[in-house]
Amino acid sequence: DDARRFRAFNAETGDIAWEQILNSSAGGFPVSYMHDGVQYIAIAAGGGVNYRSVTPEVQQPPRGNTLFVFRLP
Q: pTM for the whole thing?
């Protein structure tokens, strides 16, 4: 979302299972993959548009491209 939150939801209840604040807006869609029987979710963040000129009152996060990878239980 615009606040850089990346969330996972409980499929049965719809409750937020966990949340991570990313260093910048997500740069695409999450990817799910499995390695050695463990499932992971990956999302790229950064490399987006600089909104400083349009919304100078909004604090800008540190820039940089980051690949976040989360191991699922």
A: 0.70
Domain residue ranges of the chain, discontinuous segments joined by +: 23-71
Integer-rounded Cα Rg, in Å, for the chain is: 14
Q: Residue 12 is which amino acid?
A: E
Does the structure show a pLDDT above 90 at 73? no
On the 0-12 / 13-18 / 19+ scale of CB atoms within 10 A, 23 is middle
Pairing of strands 38-45, 31-35: antiparallel
C-beta atoms surrounding 31 within 10 Å? 12
